[in-house]
């Protein structure tokens, strides 16, 4: 199926998790919307986009299990996390809980609001490797205090590829009076979602990763009882627009200024694409990719002589494999490329990320599985790693 994407021929692409990859079919659909916009920009933006955007919200809501009125579109999950954190009324002494597996950009946003308002960031140390998901629950709940106001938690951790038992964690936090902000950047298209049942106060997910939409498409779900406090980062026309039967939450987020809405309008097309891409639709697609990444993890662990760090039940479509500690110096940049990662690309045409975690010099290889991948891709990776790694 690789020909259905624009991926560079000759490159073994094992990093769908970072930015996704959009199939040709959906890029063509996006171009159709862009051409409609440019033929008559005023009519398209003011008369057509509102209904098309409503259609996208309804499709997205159906896909993730919530009411369309409780969901808005943003450009990425990081923007959504910032939106929630910078909307809430923090006070000195408030504690904001997260984990040592938090995505760096979102952890930075948490520290920003804490520093600005005199709050405190508490970091729960979730062990990795671990044998039982209960260890994650225990680690988080052991850090809850009477001052804990909010927990920012990854549904699927980025550097370590771990699916947290998020439903049980949300419930346990709720029983302690603590709201949850779930960074589900990887969740839509990787895991089946039912946000109403999940019960988080706030949940965000990217669509351009595992749903394969064009870039710059994400959603923010805000539980109905929390919506009044949440304002967009950009205050625009919606702040004083007449409601006309629509919530202020929806009106404010529906127009943040002029941009290209074509990616968001492709959401129904992306959902339809996943239903048709493989027999059995999205459930079969998710199972196929998960089965493949589990095979890949076993193959790589056996080849490198290492143990899988977490049980199979905590794996979605990405998996982390331990590597020997790096001998390269750490320049402190989140965008630094490990020399081994660079060698895999330049010498073997394999695109795969390597993360320093929890800190230099420990590092992890993270593989992804999408429909364009097959087991032979990971066999090539195993051969390359054995040729490059010095034990």
Put the structure in a nutshell:
The chain is built from 14 helices and twelve strands.
Can you give keywords for this protein?
single chain; 391 residues; alpha/beta; Aspartate Aminotransferase, domain 1; Aspartate Aminotransferase, domain 2; 2 domains; seven-stranded mixed β-sheet; three-stranded antiparallel β-sheet; 14 helices; 12 strands; 41% helix; globular
Describe it.
Strands 2-8-7-6-5-3-4 form a 7-stranded mixed beta sheet, sandwiched between helices. The chain has a 3-stranded antiparallel beta sheet with strand order 9-12-11, covered by helices on one side. A two-stranded parallel sheet has the order 1-10. It is of the alpha/beta class. It folds into 2 domains: 2-21 and 280-388, Alpha-Beta Complex (Aspartate Aminotransferase, domain 1), CATH 3.90.1150; 27-272, Aspartate Aminotransferase, domain 2 (3-Layer(aba) Sandwich). The radius of gyration is 21 Å and the shape is globular. The mean pLDDT is 96. The longest helix is centred in the N-terminal third of the chain and has 24 residues, at 41-64. A hairpin with a 6-residue loop joins strand 11 and strand 12. The protein has 14 helices and 12 strands.
